[in-house]
Amino acid sequence: MSTSAYTSKPASELERLIADLPRSGLQAFIFGGGCWVAHLDGVTTHLFRGPADQRWWHFELGDDTARWTMDVRVDEITGVRFGRGPYPFPSFPGREILGVDFLGPDGEDSLGCWVPDLYDGERIRLERLQAWQALRERYGNRDESRVDRGRLLPPAA
Q: What is the longest distance spanned by two Cα atoms in the chain?
């Protein structure tokens, strides 16, 4: 195998966004579909590997006792959505949620990443809001982007 096939360096704009998530405070990944959802909390180190037409995003969290391992086909991500909206649970009225969703080949959310601990009591943590806004600005400054060969582009008209 060539070293270009297995690398930890981001090879595209999409991979740079993924690598920037932990630095921006987005550390809780949500993946699932239908009737199941799993949460993965914590700072992760991302590894990107594979040839350009079949890229994998790999990360592990934990130790030899217990570990989460996840592999996502980066080349199958078709869109990215920066979302800001009402908190989905009625037990916290008036709160918002901030996140980044990765869309799969069917255009549906396949993996999400959200800003944990966004509130300090009833007040939004301004530094977390600003970090999310800066990430959004760095990657197109729009709510949704389509992905074409790792590039984040405006949605098709």
A: 53
pLDDT of residue 59: 78
- Average pLDDT score over residue span 104-130: 87
CA distances (Å), origin 121, targets 124, 149, 156: 8, 42, 40
SS3 154: coil
From 44, 62, 46, select the one nearest 11 (Cα to Cα). Answer: 46
- Top pLDDT among 40 and 49 is at 49
Return the number of other C-beta atoms located less than 10 Å from residue 72's C-beta: 19
Q: Please, what's the b/e burial string for 86-104 (b: 16 or more CB within 10 A of its CB; e: otherwise)?
A: eeeeeeeeeeebbbbbbbb
